[in-house]
Amino acid sequence: MTAAASARQILTRLHEIMAGRTHAQHKLDRVVETIAESLDSEVCSIYLLREGALELYATQGLNPEAVHVTRMAVGEGLTGTIAKNIETLNLAEAKAHPDFLYRPETGEEKFHSFAGVPIVYRERAVGVLCVQHVEPRRYEEVEVEALQTTAMILSELIAHKELVDDVEAIDFGGAHTETEVIDGLALVKGLASGRAVFHQPRVEIDQVVAEDTEAERQRVYRAFDKMREQIDAMAREPEFGKGGEHVEVLETYKMFAYDEGWSRRINEAIDSGLTAEAAIERVQQRTRMRMREIDDPLLADRMHDLEDLSNRLLRIVSGQLGTAASQGLRRDSILVARNLGPAELLEYDRRRLKGVVLEEGSLTAHVVIVARAMGIPVLGRAMGILSRVSEGDEILIDADKSRVTLRPSPALMDAFEYRFAKNRERQATYAELRDVEPFTRDGTRIAVMMNAGLRDDMSMLQLTGADGVGLFRTEFQFLVSSTLPQRDRQTRLYRDVLEAAGDKPVVFRTVDIGGDKAVPYLNSQVAERDENPAMGWRALRLSLEREGLLKVQARALLEAAAGRTLSVMFPMVSEPWEFDAAKAMFEGQLEFLRDRRKLVPETVEYGCMLEVPALAEVLEQLLPRLSFISVGTNDLTQFLFAADRANPKLAERYDWLSLAILRFLHRVSQACVGYPVRLNVCGEMGGRRLEALALLGIGYRRLSITPAAVGPIKELVRKVDLGEITRQMSQWLVTPPPDMRAALKAWADERDIETD
Ligand code: PEP
Ligand code: MG
Predict the structure, then answer these.
(1) Suppose 556 and one of 49, 201, 490, 574 were both cysteines; which one would form an S-S bond, judging by CB atoms 3.0 to 4.6 Å apart?
(2) Nearest residue CA, atom 1 of ligand 1?
(3) What is the pLDDT of residues 727-746, one digit of tens each?
(4) What is each CA distance from 14 to 150, 157, 326, 612, in whole angstroms?
(5) How close is the Cα of 590 to the center of ligand 1, in Å?
(6) How would you class 640 by CB atoms within 10 Å of its CB: exposed for 0-12, middle for 13-18, buried for 19 or more?
(7) Ligand 1, atom 4: closest residue by C-alpha
């Protein structure tokens, strides 16, 4: 008999048992009887995890008196070993196994052969199903397979209260009980605590036993087709780089999606009587078990991908497609994901979302910039987080120490609370600086502005005491919207922003979409063109060609700033003519409004971002035409180093304090001397204290940074002697120290300037 036929036979019998109108224990007794009979075994037993131990819940063949008496710790005896390692044991001679433990009350001494499988619920062992036989023989592969399928059905039946009366007593919380610490990469510093919420929620499987096998097969076929379509579409879309997913992952996805073996195994599981959902889960469970036996990190990575894909298939087949955002957060939550796009993050309720833990992630990925703007700590590169945490587990993120603690003990919680309090004290110190102007010790006023992108961000202007908004990323509105934002919606936002800013200046950057900021409604055009989206048809390049887009934005900005100053900045300018063309577009709209006697801004000033290295070579041509220029170090560094800013593998590879960057930035600041142009830095670099110190030393006097950094940077500025750091940096640029970061740190430490 095949494994499928054998499992099918058991399933049919289970079906009949479940339909009976007897109480749960009686059903469970019949279940073990049936399995024993089908697998031609003298014994079949079910152990379930209750109050931390595996308790014998039903048996055919062992001493009935042992039921609810025999209890084994997880890890103890063969049963405990199976549960602990979530593995299958198939032994011709049970006594010969080093973990064998004899329990006299069971009367099992006469049985030699033993096969046991874990009963797994949501990746945790909640029990063990085993068979025993007098004759010393190894069970056949098909028998073990049938046992595994049966165990899976049992787990669902038990969870749905159909086989045990006291299901509340069963420990479905299972294996993940101990405290664990995972180290990662701090992407947004800070502390946070809350309950784990999976961005992609696990699919709840309601029905495991199929009513119509053919129908289930069709459902799986259709789901496979849809999934393959999705993967192929992803391959065509350049924003597959979004959030750090990469070509490699895509290749693996494709390999699995078209893998005959995988779909065949799912079909076999359906043949054994499972629903499509249960079959996918069953195959995944088996893969997980196999993986536990193989210790190969490369393979483990691939298995992550298969796990992702398997979840995707499950979501398609079950129609449970939404992310956790669509279900809403009910309490303080820590979002757990492999990776996220910026728009996905923005869908969450900001009041309840306390932190984010990612398996991937890099410092300048847009999702991280958004999280930083939202003041949400993010720990990236937390390897294994998805399998080591369960929905609802307590999590502490300590991004200051680059680690996350899962299921902390009360003592750890207390210690964390203490650090929280210390942090609050520190924040209070920054708050005191709110109305203090940031002069250096030798009397130079440094402009400390903030970056923003959403209406809500504007409250931070008052709270931090920033000098204004040096970069308003208008594309955030485009990212959170499912359709292209119409002009009146844009005007409303810009007007609200200006009103909230009061007398303080706001620099609006025209849309920078494309790259890792993909918007679905513009994708088709982007998809056809870009192999390499960060260097592709994005930002101003896209806006200049999609004239309508820029014109609408120009009108919205001009109308919103009627009667006051409008500062507009263009992103990704690579050659001066692009700036001219964009400015001409705005001037055209201004004319249009004037002709119609509409109220227009008192002044319009134009500036541009310096993100493309080529522009630095022609500054003398461009500067006379500008009111201000702002260095976008996020993109600039990715282009200088040819290192994708969203690629987690490169996240720590290049340092903002490297000689190449500092020399480059120094040349830019030198080139601006003598022009009446305001020079800013608005990349993430300026919000880090050591980096800001270096920037001050190479001629930068205006920083636009994430709101949370305004206090710390003001504090730094007030402790620095600008003359001294300028002399020091000039010397280091000529004669570099072996490690610029270490040298700067030592310099700051000697002067009691905090830079962490
Ligand atoms: C930059 O590139 O440094 C920048 C500020 O723009 P963004 O991060 O939005 O690309
Ligand atoms: Mg940029």
Answers:
(1) 490
(2) 632
(3) 999 999 999 999 999 999 99
(4) 9, 10, 37, 67
(5) 27
(6) middle
(7) 632
